[in-house]
Amino acid sequence: MPPTYQQIAVDRLYANAHSLEGNFQATYQNEKNRVRMKDSYEAYAPNILKDMNSLVKGNLAAALAGPKSAFNQFISAWNEGTGDLTRSYNQLAEFWRLLSNARPAIDALTTPAAAPPAPPQPPAPAKPTAADLDQFRKLATAANDLLDPFEACVKAHQPAEASQIAELVRQINELLKIDPSQAAANELNGPKSAWASFTRRYNAGRDISQASFAMLKQFEAMMQAADKNIR
Predict the structure, then answer these.
(1) Which among 13, 134, 192, 216 is placed 20 to 30 Å from 82, CA to CA?
(2) What distance in Å separates the CA atoms of residue 81 and residue 35, rounded to the nearest whole number?
(3) CB atoms < 10 A from the CB of 157, how many?
(4) Phi and psi at residue 180, in whole multiples of 5°?
(5) Is 74 exposed, middle or buried (0-12, 13-18, 19+ CB in 10 A)?
(6) pLDDT tens digit sequence for 16-74
(7) CATH class for domain 130-229?
(8) Which CATH class is domain 5-110?
(9) Among candidates 19, 28, 14, which has minimal Cα distance to 89?
């Protein structure tokens, strides 16, 4: 994340303050260095004051209150370059000490809050097993195989294909007793309900009619769709 405007201003403030304090420390003990100290003051002090005045308007007011007061006292002691050098440096050193001590608090206030961690990804949905695929295919095939003989019996109005129908009904009943995996179970709920409605109407071969055939076709269509959906 790129630094914010506030962080850039803080870094600039510390860099200028460090340079000014270092230059004064190296020169304040000799009056002959006053001109050099004036040059250093003019190079750094206005920028320090500008950044502090800007930063204290936000959430750093409390953290910078002590350093700002100390810097104003340094400006007074320096008195536009005519003040006592030792007193001026001591006041500048106090400003730098307070500013350095405030850095942890300032960094904490200027560091953007970390983004919350991304929510954990839901686990990948379970896939139907090979046994599921085999069960669904057998059910869809048996349902389809049951349509023709059942329709023939309806049209002939006699159970000429009764044994074939009974065998296919038995096969489907047995296949539906098998519990599929959790990944495939929901797909079988609708066909199971449709089959239960059909078998109640079919009543072990006692009702082979257009009404029961319509229920069988509904089951067969649902079973074909379920078989397709799990693949």
Answers:
(1) 13
(2) 8
(3) 9
(4) -75, 175
(5) buried
(6) 999 999 999 999 999 999 999 999 999 999 999 999 999 998 899 999 999 999 999 99
(7) mainly alpha
(8) mainly alpha
(9) 28
